[in-house]
Design a protein that fits this description.
The complex is a heterodimer of chains A (273) and B (118). Chain A has 273 residues and is α/β, with parallel strands linked by helices. Chain A is built from 10 helices and 4 strands. Chain A folds into 2 domains: 145 residues, Globin-like; 111 residues, Transcription Regulator spoIIAA (2-Layer Sandwich). Helices cover 65% and strands 9% of the residues of chain A. The model of chain A has no long low-confidence stretch (mean pLDDT 84). Chain B is of the alpha/beta class and 118 residues long. Chain B has one domain: 2-Layer Sandwich (Transcription Regulator spoIIAA). Chain B has 4 helices and 5 strands; from the N terminus they run E-E-H-E-H-E-H-E-H. Chain B has a 5-stranded mixed β-sheet with strand order 1-2-3-4-5, sandwiched between helices. In chain B, helix 2 links the parallel strand 3 and strand 4. In chain B, helix 1 packs parallel to helix 2. The radius of gyration of chain B is 13 Å and the shape is globular. Classes of the chains: A alpha/beta (273), B alpha/beta (118). At the A-B interface, helix 7 and helix 8 of A face helix 3 and strand 5 of B.
Chain lengths: 273, 118
């Protein structure tokens, strides 16, 4: 960065910031600030402006760290990314306008100076966008993990009988998880009968059916039996209309009937006392 | 390398402790059928608990052994197929549909008993 530019920015620091803040107030009306108190908004604006100008003097690493801590703080209090991008665009516009109207730079150097300013601003924008997307990806990862944990539990309900309730759509990745949990669980609980409950599965298409059939076959190979329960009327209709053959393993309409049938298969039954 | 075949009353017990290669599997098929003939056994349990891998050829041999033994009047139950093995078999499209299975040796023997009584 040319020292003349830096000097210019520093000498006119207050004017630039004032102008920028005025413009920010115009665009901020009702945009990012819903809910935030006016004082908080003003304070954040001040801080942001000071930070932008301070980055001029810092070395790269320090600027990066400062920006990161600032953006992280705002991220957690829910400031949108557009606050930063719009703010920086505005800052650039104000700065360039200021430079041209006040004749602080010789016209021969206009392009060079503009480029310097662009580079400076772009660096900040890039980092902020990276910070935000990084935080989104992180959140997404956490949610995926949480979903995975909730995805396919195998619950032993009686001796030798376990239930796996499935809720939500089943894709290939989840089907794999279902199969693994199912087989590991059978070995662990020594289950002879497992009930796969699809009450909570909204749509059963050919792919879902295929995964379920595969799981049932694998269950048979490890030496247990699989009963498909929770078949709602509309699911029964789709299955038949799609021509899916579920004839090879037993199906029941409700979990309750499934459990009764499972008990029967292990030579037990529920009796009234 | 031969797989030992143990006789227990009317049954034959086989616990496969090594990963089967083609030669061993074929040798085993022959040995088992001879043993069934010799002892006149009514049932066979083949335990695969310590087998971590079954390829398509071994799967075919196992299916064949079951069918051949049935022809000779001995019911066969496969036990202890590991989850990983089951997934591989299903992925390869090998369902072993006619083969009875059980979780472990104990349940396998129960199953044989049931089938023989039926």
């Amino acid at each position: 960065m040319q020292s003349s530019v830096i000097e210019m920015v520093y000498t006119h620091r207050h004017e630039v910031i004032e102008q920028w803040k005025e413009e920010m107030i115009n665009i901020q009306e009702g945009e990012f600030t819903n809910g935030a108190a006016q004082a908080a908004v003003t304070r954040t604006n001040d801080e942001f402006a000071a930070l932008i100008i301070d980055t001029l003097e810092m070395d790269k690493e320090e600027a990066r760290l400062r920006l990161r801590s600032f953006s992280e703080r705002l991220m957690y209090s829910g400031w949108p990314l557009s606050y930063f991008t719009k703010g920086l665009q505005l800052f650039r516009r104000v700065l360039l306008r200021f430079m041209t109207t006040n004749d602080t730079i010789p016209s021969s150097k206009v392009f060079e100076t503009f480029q310097e300013v662009e580079n400076w601003m772009d660096g900040i924008v890039n980092q902020l966008v990276d910070e935000y997307t990084g935080s989104w990806e992180h959140t997404l990862e956490l949610q995926k993990l949480a979903l995975k944990e909730l995805s396919a539990p195998l619950i032993p309900v009686f001796e030798n009988i376990s239930v796996m309730p499935l809720i939500g759509t089943i894709d290939t990745e989840r089907a794999k998880l279902v199969m693994e949990n199912l087989l590991e669980g059978i070995i662990e609980h020594r289950s002879q009968v497992v009930l796969i409950d699809i009450t909570g599965v909204p749509v059963v298409d050919t792919m879902v059916a295929h995964h379920i059939i595969q799981a049932a076959e694998a269950v048979r190979l490890v030496g247990a039996e699989c009963i498909l329960v929770g078949i709602r009327p509309e699911i029964a209709q789709t299955i038949v209309n799609l021509g899916i053959d579920l004839g090879k393993f037993p199906t029941k309409s409700t979990l309750r009937k499934g459990i009764e049938s499972g008990l029967e298969r292990t030579n037990r039954q529920i009796v009234n006392l | 390398m031969r797989i030992p075949i143990l006789k227990l009353k009317r049954y034959l017990l086989i616990s496969v402790q090594v990963d089967l290669d083609d030669q061993t599997a074929l040798q085993f098929q022959e040995d088992l059928l001879n043993k069934i003939h010799q002892e006149g056994s009514a049932g066979v349990v083949i335990d695969l608990t310590s087998v971590d891998m079954i390829d398509s050829f071994i799967a075919k041999v196992l299916g064949d052994v079951v069918e051949m033994s049935n022809l000779m009047g001995a019911k066969v139950v496969l036990t202890g197929i590991q989850p990983g093995v089951a997934i591989t078999l299903i992925d390869m499209g090998i369902m072993l549909e006619e083969v009875p299975t059980a979780l472990d040796l104990e349940q396998g023997l129960d199953k044989l008993q049931q089938e023989l009584e039926a």
